[in-house]
Amino acid sequence: MKYNLNFNDVAESYLFAEVADRVAKYSKANPDKKVIKLGIGDVTLPLVPEVIKALHAAVDDMAEKETFKGYGPYEGYSFLRDAISDYYKKMGVALEEGEIFVSDGAKSDLGNILDIFDKDNVVLVPDPVYPVYVDTNVMAGRKVLFADASEQNGFLPMPDYSVDADIIYICSPNNPTGAAYTEAQLKEWVDYANSKNAVILYDAAYECFITDNSLARSIFRIEGAKTCAIEFCSLSKIAGFTGTRCGYTIVPHALEKDGMNANKLWLRRQSTKFNGVPYIVQRGAAAVFSEEGMKQIQNNLSYYKRNAQIIAECLDELGIPYTGGNNSPYVWLKCPRGMSSWEFFDYLLFNAQVVGTPGAGFGRNGEGYFRLTAFGSRENTEEAVKRIQLLLK
Ligand code: PLP
Fold it and tell me: What is the whole-number distance in angstroms between the Cα of residue 313 and the centre of ligand 1?
């Protein structure tokens, strides 16, 4: 037996494990201090009533012979795929039958999709970004190139034709920077990918936070995207499904090369290694897209968006530069006084008992930056902001 030696090349501890470790040590030594966590990107509001109602009804379905469900379709029940298709239609995107695949979340699919691509592909990943893209490719032994995101380019790297990438990751709105591409900017990426015969793996996990109409909520709004892109989306942030688990991936029929078709390969992969998302969860997910469900989740999204504004207003007052906060649940700030990401992490923890995420954990270019999230409670967000103001003014 031999282990996969590529695991030696991935960073040993996941970023949030190190954060949790430092917070636990601090809390143990200072049990009287209340620590406020604006670090991890998990939601805090419960599922909306319409989803709960659908989940209960689906549990009852499982109790009756007539409505009981066993294995479902690999690509998800049509009642959910149709609901997702309608959601896209409202965004101005027409999807064909068979292009939507329901999954247990975007993270799984972002990792699993690599099964359909050869090991010998050049991967281009923005830096900084959600660490899963790099780690999953390193585990598979692939070479990763980075597209530098910085203050100079507004944390939105654009294509460089001197680089021959095969698999390109785009996360918009970006985790951690909150920066989001306009449709015009995405068109440049689509043209680049088509000209290089490359594929864009487009992560739209935070599309629901976009309020500015010039920003893209789906790559398939862009002409030419169907021949070069796969889109990953999730119900985690839009509807609080981080613990319930449901997402979807769109693989266009038009995405093919050398007689091989991405949609067919993905269906083949899923039907071999995946037996579908629970019926009960899919019923809950479909309720998200109902008229009443959409209304209810908008209230939750507004709550998080206001939290983001509260954080952004605090940084405005302090004169600290940041991106995000608008069109994103993340606020990405420059560490004050030239501190490194981890120095600022400790400084904030020790002096204000506020926890964020050090930018260095998202890539080399994240050094010197820091991520705060809007997913906390209003009370905690307001208290954290007060403490930050007191400390840094
Ligand atoms: N994509 C990005 C950019 C994320 O930040 C996250 C989670 O934080 C995910 C995907 C994971 O989504 P899911 O919960 O659907 O697996």
Answer: 26
**Ligand 1 nearest atom to the CA of residue 105, by list position:** 15
Contact between residue 286 and residue 80 where contact means Cβ atoms under 8 Å apart = yes
267 pLDDT more than 90: yes
Of 19, 234, 237, best ligand 1 pocket probe by most atoms within 8 Å of the beta carbon: 234
- 3-state class (DSSP) for residue 333: strand
- pLDDT per residue over 110-169, tens digit each? 999 999 999 999 999 999 999 999 999 999 999 899 999 999 999 999 999 999 999 999
| CB-based pocket (< 6 A), ligand 1 | 41, 105-107, 130, 171, 175, 203, 205, 234, 236, 242, 247
Distance 33 CA to ligand 1 centre (A): 31
Two tokens, residue 89: 């239609």
Residue type, 298: Q
Residues 311, 326 contacting (CB under 8 angstroms) = no
pLDDT at 16: 83
| Vertex 294 angle, CA 289 and 299, to 5° | 150
In this prediction the pTM is: 0.97
